[in-house]
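User: Hello, beginner here. Can you help me understand these amino acid letters and fold codes? It all follows right here:
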Amino acid sequence: MEIQESSRLSRLIHRSAVALVALGAAAILAFGDRPSTHILPDGQPVHKRVVVSYWEEWTGFEGRAMRHIVNKFNMSQHHIYINMVEVSNVNIKTLIATAGGDPPDLVTLWSAVMGQFISYHALTSLNTLVRHKVVTPHTFVPFAWKLCAPDGTLYGLPATTDPNALYWNKILFARAGLDPDKPPTTLRQLDTMARRLTIISPDGAIRQAGFLPMEPNWYSPDWGIYFGNHIYNRQTGFFNIDTPQQRRAYRWFQSFSQRLGYREVDSFQSGFGPFNSPLNPFMDGRVAMELQGPFLANFINRNNPELIGHYGVAAFPTSFGPPGAATFGDCDIWVIPRGAHHVSAALEVLKYFIARKNLEYLNDQQAKPSPLLKVSRKFIRRNPNAYIQVFETIARSPHVQSLPPSALWPRVNLQLKVMANRIWMGASVAGQLRHAQALADQWVRREKHLAALRHRRELRP
């Protein structure tokens, strides 16, 4: 049912985006916001400014960091006013607004949906920033640039980066007789340490887990990366799901539920608190090692400051090389939707956002590495993430794999999560990989067929 609902939603958005292309610029009715309805941070009303509508996905302290930059911009000049609005489900709402001809001028998107937006022609090219040398391929870390310009055309600018790494609890390492300053450097070592760190009560219940590849379950489609798999072929547009690397990855993945019992793990996980809470399983010591992004450090600082100084971060081990020989990286990206009413003003805003002092402030507040290739010593020194240099090094690595720039990725990703859940519960690894590969191949062929039909239709006189 979950897959069917995702498919229906995908078709709905697809039809809306195609309608946008058919309508063209003549269908865009631009009225924008009334400047008189907005107030500056100092309490003065806004007069005679271009109002840039900005939809932001961050909330809480992350959203406040972005709003600080917006307020600085609004007070720094008298020509443009940014009206920042925090929007949930921003990717779907932006697609619908773009299809309807009334998009915001600026949006922060998750990199997972960039391929979808690009395929639907829902973004404005930012190549003018390249032509005027505001940015170059060497302005940002390589994987972030590749996410923003997957086909050579620049469609966005990176706001933050999220390369993953291994977190480990030094207190639990010491209790288990392990050196708290030596994390695993191979997957075999990780497995051995995970066994020593796992505590099972006499009744069979799990009291402490050394490592769980399903905690958190955000990364369940990505484990093949650490076994040398590249999930997407950029030349053919097909997905590499049923490969030898994937089979090794998901046999390793399944070994944890086979050893511990997936029902026992499910019962153990049912007692976990929300991610942003003191009952987060890594923060409260119920899980000793975890794959996570840099942002976790910020939540540790806020929810369990007693853990500060008692955990470590290092590149995650791989099956085929040293730690960091492959890893996963993600981005939040600023884009201008197609049909935005104030493109020139939005471009000026983007130039301000990517100034080093502003990007460093934003990523400092979110405890993340900067997307800029060159960062200041002050940024490293003041960042609240004690392991920011580890993440900076990972982010600059040529081995970071990012999300596929395919319109089908959200759908394929959902199917991979379903596949991983079935494998976790004991289904055949080979069978599930074959099934997921067949579905993805079918979707790619159908998408290529539809693209060819659209192209022939456009060529007709």
